[in-house]
Task: structure prediction
Amino acid sequence: MISASTDLRRRQDNKIAWFFCLPALIGLTFFIFFPFILAVFLSFTNLRLGSPLPLEFMGLSQYSRIFTDTAFLHALKNNTVFALIVVPLQTCLALLLALLINQPLRGMFIFRTLFFMPVIFPLSLVAVVWILIFAPGPQGTLNSLLELITLGSWEPRDFLHDPHLALPAITITSIWQGVGFQMVILLAALQSLPTELYEAAKVDGACRSQQFFHITLPLLKNPLIFVILVTTILAFRLFDQVQIMTRGGPNYATTTVMYEAVSAAFGSQQVARGAAMTVVFFIIVLALTLLQRYIVRQEGASS
Amino acid sequence: MQKTLRTFITIFFLFFLLPSFTGCKGQQDVKNDSLGGKIQLEVWAHAGQEKERKVLEQQVARYNQKSSTAELHLTFIPERNYNSQVQAAAIAGDLPDILEFDGPYLYNYIWQNHLLPLEGLLSQSLIADLLPSIIDQGTHGSHLYSVGSFDSGLGLYARKDMLSAINVRVPQSVSDAWSADEFKDILRKLAEEDEDGAVLDLKLNYGGEWFTYGFSPILQSTGADLIDREDYQHSTGILNSPEAVAALQNLQSWFQAGFIDPNLDDAAFTTGRVALSWVGHWEYSRYKKACPDNLILLPLPDFGEGSRTGQGSWNWGITRNCKYPDKASSFLTFLLSTPEVLAICKANSSVPGTKNAVAQSELFNENGPLRLFAAQLLGGVSIPRPKTPAYPVITTEFQKAFQQIRNNGDVQEALDKAASNIDQDIRDNHGYPFRNFQ
Amino acid sequence: MSVYLALGCLTLIFLVPVGMMISGSFKPDSLVLQEAGQLTSFFPDEIVLTNYQDVFARVDFAQYIFNSIYITGTIVLFGLFANSLAGYALSRLHWHGRKLILAGVIALIIIPLEAIAVPLFYEVTLFGWRNTYLVQIVPFIANAFSIYLFYTFFLGLPRELEEAARIDGAKPLRIFTCIVVPNAKPVFAAVAILTFLTQWGSFLWPLMVTHSENVRPLPLGIALFYTLPPLQWGDIFAFGVMMVLPVLVVFLVFQRWFVQGVASTGMKG
Result:
């Protein structure tokens, strides 16, 4: 008797579900899925933007070329290093800020807004301001600040053109822009934690750090994972800052996969090569995402 | 409550839906529309410095007033990524009637069959009056595809007093330009007198195309080049030849010795931090204002085969989309008339594109302060950037190599890589064969 | 008290770039770079309004801002509609292919615009949509990440009300609009703001597909100021300040809901 009605409901649900999904699915299929398939297809050809020559198949040549290209290999390395640094650093900073703001004091929401402000600025604008901050010579903001702090013993550096300092500079810019977003998520999660647990812990004599490690962190697991996953994906998409601040230099110290792909497609007009790079990018990020989810599930199973 | 919500939402949707579908399209390419009897022509130009833009706007306005049959509509496109935007429009068949473009990209457009030949549309006397450099840049095969109302000049601005202080000879013309060794010695002497040792401004704060424009003449001055100009099929052996490597290693040594000012505030020369500035005509008015009695213009150093310099600037062409090429060409004729040429050159200090205008120009006639620029363009000292559809790849690769060289990378390696990438692109495109079309 | 101090200091350091931008917009161009390393960077000696005047004189700012608001607003509105329905279907209804579509949606989150820009460009050129509002709106209505946010949020809503309505014989669409939506304000706010933020600064796509001023959005307007150096920093910052203000206003107004929404989606992980 119940199964008959659930069966009917299933069939009704089927039709309705497709109806509900239709607008979004049409959009996703036509404007993301199809173009991506086309990009995959193009990565096996020699397409050049606006070329009057007929299209030719090149098999896997584009792929073998990009994997033997020092620029692209540097890009892969930079993206990995960048992700490995930004994800933990930005997450810890966001957690710290969230903990600080999560006090039952007045006016905390003002701080929340202020720290979120950089997220609102378009990345291109953020990059432009930071160029001024990293300006070489004693006029640059960071240079003069460091000179002040070290009481004059700091040599002004050209951050954006120094092979060792360029990537850190971009990292700082990205963290500045992104930390507010993570902070808001973690803060909201913190604010919904039940206070009784903390009361009980205090009664048991637990100190602040014990409370943090044994109560807060475990309860924050889900939001933290979410935040880490999203930040990792965004870290691999790094593009705007590189284009505006360093153009991939110096000596490929800051080039990224997306930057190489866009340069190839729009700068050198080699569309097929750019397409191959984006396919590689997709595969890498997909693998990382699946890996992260797998690890999380393993830990969830064991704990 | 639900009903009002629903009606509210419906109204909202309609409000947003309507403009999307009812002709709020962008300026539809009004190629064939006639508004009040006048033929409408679409013109695209780059959004340059303010003075330059204003003059062009005024020129279009003047022309529209004069002409009883045609009306021009001018659109400014951001200068950064100009070529990409034009390419995107070209693929979609959206090009305007009259298109401005940076000289070296001409061959790309010809190869893609976007431009009409101009020799039938412009008068012979006008063509004869053009600077030889402009004709060189704009010609492919037996056709002239583009003309320019101005051309560019590239040289070395100097502060006379700083040079006198170290007692060096001042070249009077291209033929007695400093040699590369002499130049390095001068840099050294200047650095000794200088506070921070940085005495030369290479406009490192510029992006992109500047590096190819400003520094590939070094290659030509040493007997090398960006590509083999016989058949434009390969760069290996030319771009990474021993002469090229030696010359760019020399350049690299200037960086290593600290002679080069990073120039982020673009004021190294104007504030007197440096004595020399390697740049083009467009800085003249700013520099003149900064040191009115002290400014001299010198040829680029000679790296072995004579001082060479760059040329080429924004050119005009008529696209195949244009239904009224004769009307379009009458606008070009207007732009190339002496008073109009002088007007735009006054705004951006560029070299006038016609010999007539050069003779009448205060800056560029034989007694003018910038006569060197004119002389270089008239005398074949200037070399156009490679006339091939492979140009976008060539310039990208050279820029990358330059960045590595300036950051102390290995010169041979950088040039080898650039040359092989260029060669590969040319191979991929079957040598960029031109079909035979009118 | 010490918390206020710590936070105050952090905030000051944190907002240095913002301060530079605002004060830079009131300085003459030449001073912006020169004074970058000094305290006067934040407190200009003389306040000039020429930069703001320049922006209006040089560019049809009203047109650009209208375009941006119209394009972004439409994407957000239509997007809320399409993506919430999809998210609901994926989370609540039982149907064949649900798992497959869900997996597909999650995979699509990874693909950034830059990766598909060129093929998408060829596609819209084929449709003849170049240089319109349409081409800047339609491809961005459906968004995998938004669907995912809706999906996780709806999963977390208690089912009782919906179940009760179902037993009473209500159609799913009715249940959605009358029961679910009113209880989902936070996630709607969150998705609206996130979409608004991403689309407001969109540059690459409009650059490729439009050329006329009357359909181009704000970021392309600011691009007109990027000529040959010397760059007019003051003008650029003035433009930047004006570009960010509307977004700031939107955020301040919807802040509370936004934070709730973002938090409730994040927590499901």
In short: Residues 264 and 274 of chain A are 5 Å apart (CA to CA). Chain A touches chain C through 92 residues (CB under 8 Å). Chain A is about 75% helix and 0% strand.
